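Lab channel / #folding
Pinned by the channel admin:
"Please post every new chain as: sequence first, then the structure tokens as a reply. Keep commentary short and put observations after the output so the thread stays searchable."

First post following the new format, from NK:
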Amino acid sequence: MLHCNSIHLLKSLNLNVVGMKKFSEVSKGKGKLEGSKLHIDQILDKPLRLLAYEITDSKHNADKCLTVQYEIEESVKGEDGNVNTEWVKHITFTGSKALVSQLQDVESGDFPFCVKIIKQPIGEGGRKCFYKLIDPD
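Reply from TO:
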């Protein structure tokens, strides 16, 4: 004699198992950020809509890697052939400790927000620099 597998029955009927949470309910909001990659120098001094960020271990050294997901205004050719300005989603990777420090204080509920990334030289000669988040103009 076989018994009824109630969990399988509930799943097959597309019903949530009583008391069991879904992944989206327990996830901390971190995960794969989507968008085409742009180098940080391509987005300097431009208004951005910052959507999310993720801090992980760097693949290249012992430091941290910051991944930022944002939208930036771009000219996009529509299906009708006309060129329109739209907000397009991108991601950028950086090892900037200054940006990591600034973003660690931002709560996940505060996204999205408008920002601009600038490059600040350190000392004379301009060989060393750091990146900084500021309000857009």
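NK: The mean pLDDT is 84.
TO: also worth noting, The first strand starts at residue 36 and ends at 37.
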